Amino acid sequence: MSNNDRVSPPRLAGCFFNWYCSNDLRESIQGDLYERFQDDLEKKGLFPARLRYWINVFRFINRYTIRKNKNPNYYHSNNSAMIKNYLLVTIRSLWKNKAFASINIFGLAIGLASCMIIFFYVVSLRKHT
């Protein structure tokens, strides 16, 4: 029995892995990580093996290994789909009511331009006083 048999991977890396990895994948991935650690320990030494163990723990982070929230009250909103839907409804509405939409957009542009002109005028008056 050599000294390499008693050396274990970094405990903090193992705790981090257990925290983020889903329960059904944890055992098989942890076995692979441990085998890689033992191979690196034999070939490269203790410090490089521990460093590579940390690197391998971070490499296994992906959308399949991250633990899912099993709480039925957990609400996961899909903001990108919601924004896409809002834009689609807006474009359809603008296309359907072209005259009404053009009047509203023109009025909004005139209002914003007027506000900007007034703002810049007030700022320029403050600089001169």
Describe the protein in words.
The protein is an all-alpha fold. It has helices spanning 11-20, 23-44, 46-59, 79-96, 98-128.
Choose one word for the global shape. Answer: elongated
Q: Using only CA atoms, what is the Rg?
A: 30 Å
- How many individual β-strands? 0
Query: What level of helicity do the residues show?
Result: over 70%
Number of helices: 5
User: Which structural class do you get from the secondary structure elements?
Assistant: mainly alpha
Give the terminus-to-terminus CA distance.
88 Å
Low-confidence stretches at least 5 residues in length (pLDDT < 50)?
none
Q: Into which percentage range does the β-strand content fall?
A: under 5%
Strand count, sense and barrel status of the largest sheet are: none
> What is the average per-residue confidence, as pLDDT, rounded to a whole number?
86
| Element string (H = helix, E = strand) | HHHHH
